[in-house]
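It is worth pausing here to work through a concrete case rather than discussing structure prediction in the abstract. The textbook approach is simple: state the sequence, then state the predicted structure, then interpret. We follow exactly that order.
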Amino acid sequence: MSRPDELTSWHAEWTGLRVAVLGLGVTGFAAADTLAELGADVLVVAANAQEERARLLEVIGARLVQSDLSETPDELRQHAPELIIVSPGFHPDHPVLAWAAEASIPVWGDIELAWRLRDKVGTPAEWILVTGTNGKTTTVQLTATMLAAAGIRVAPCGNIGIPVLDAIRDPQGWDVLVVELSSYQLHHLPRSGPGALFPLSSVCLNVADDHIDWHGSIEAYREAKATVYQNTRVACVYNRADAATERMVQEADVQEGARAIGFGLGVPGPSDFGIVDGILCDRAFLEERRDQAIELTTVAELDLAGLSAPHMIANVLAASALARSFGVAPGVIRSALDTFHLDAHRIEVVAARAGIRWIDDSKATNPHAASASLAAYDSVVWVVGGLLKGVDIDELVGTHVGRLRGAIIIGVDRGALREAFRRHAPTLRVFEIDADDTGTVMPEAIRLAGELAETGDVVLLAPAAASMDQFTDYAERGRLFGEAVRDYLGGEADDPSASR
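Step two, the predicted structure:
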C-alpha cells in the first residue's frame, strides 16, 4: 500500500509528505492550508491566484507556481509529489491529471481529504450528503436549519461556499456536517477503499442535463451523481418524480439497514414523504405503530414563508427526510420552517409595482432549474441566456412557451435560444441584447421587459445558463438585475407583495 493510502486520520504521520494542490480558489486554499498545518511539503499550482491568497501561502509555508497548466510545469515535476489534491474545476482529461495517472500518483479531491481528516476535533461528526442538478444549496440550508433548531451542532458546508476542510478543523467541533456536493467533487470520490465516505444519510434531489462539457456525457454525469448514495448507513433519500434517482439508490452498494426514502408532491406511500390535502406528511419515520402519517407543516404555511413553489416544496420534503433520519422531531421541523429565509438570487422578488412582479432567480443556471422557476408562474416575461454549457435548450422553450408574454435573450449563446423560440413560438415577441459591456446588459433587458409586461405578469430572470460570459458569477448577474429594476422603477418596490 502506498503511503498516502495509509493516511486516514488527522493524527497520522503527514509530516514531509510531498503534496501538490491544483488550483487556488476557495477549496484549493483550504487544502493547502490544511496540509501545511499537518506539516506536509505543499506546492500549489494555479493559473490564477488572488493576491491575498498568494501572500497567505507564503505565510503558512506553502509554495506557489503560477502556470496556465496547458502542460505539466517543470516545477511540479521537480516537486515529485506523492499525492495531488485537485480543485473541483479541473476536467477529468486535464493534462496534469493525465500526467499523474501515468506516474501512478494518487489524486484526491478536497472531500476525500476532509473525510480522512475528520477526527481532528473530538468524535468525528456525522455527514449528510446532498447533491442534484438543482436545489442543493436550499436543501442543505433547510436541513441545517432543522437540525440546529433541535439543538444539534451542525455546519452546512462543501460546495455551498464553506470548504469541508474548514468545517472539520473548527475548534468547537460539530455533531453533523450537511455537505453539498457538486458532480465535480463526486467524480473524484472513491466508492471503496480507505478514502470512501460512509455518510449517515444522502440525497440526489434530481438529475437533468448539465455540465456535459465537463463530464463528457450525460451518462458520466449521472454516474458521478450516483456516488452520493454509496455506503450510506441510514437513509437514501430519492425523488419519486425522478426515476433516475430511484435507480441510483437501487444500484448503490449501501450499508446493511439503510432505507430508501422517497419524497414527492403527491400522496406518499409507505416509507415516503409527500402531501395529503395540503399537508406535508412523513410516512417513513413513524413514531407510533398506530401512526399512519406524521404531519410536518402545510402548503399554506410554506406560502407565508415564500416556499410554496413546487420545487421549493420538494426541497422542504427532502430536507425533512434528512433531518428526520437524524431524529429531529416533527414539531421542530415545523418551527424551523417558520423562520427560514431563502438566500438572495433564488426566486427573490426584488420589486412589485402596478401589478407586475420582478423576480431574480439568477441561481437558475441550467434548464432544469429554469423550468422549475417558470412553472411557478402563469404569465412571464422571461430574461434568459448566458453560457449554455453544452445542454439542449429546445425542450425547455417548448415546454413553457404557453406561459410566456415575451422573452429577452442575453449572453453569448443566443443562437440556440433564438432558433428554439422561432420553432416553438414564431409569433412571440423576442428581443436580443447584443452588448459587450456588462454594465449595459441588464438596464437594456429591463427596459425591454418593462415594455412587454402587463398587469399580473412576472418579469423573471431565470437564465437557464451560466453567467461567466458577461458577469463574475450568478450573484453579480442577479445584483445587476435588481439594480436595473430599481433604477427603471425609480426607487424601491412599493407593493406589499414585494416582500414575499
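Step three, interpretation. The chain has 20 helices and 20 strands. The two ends are 57 Å apart (CA to CA).
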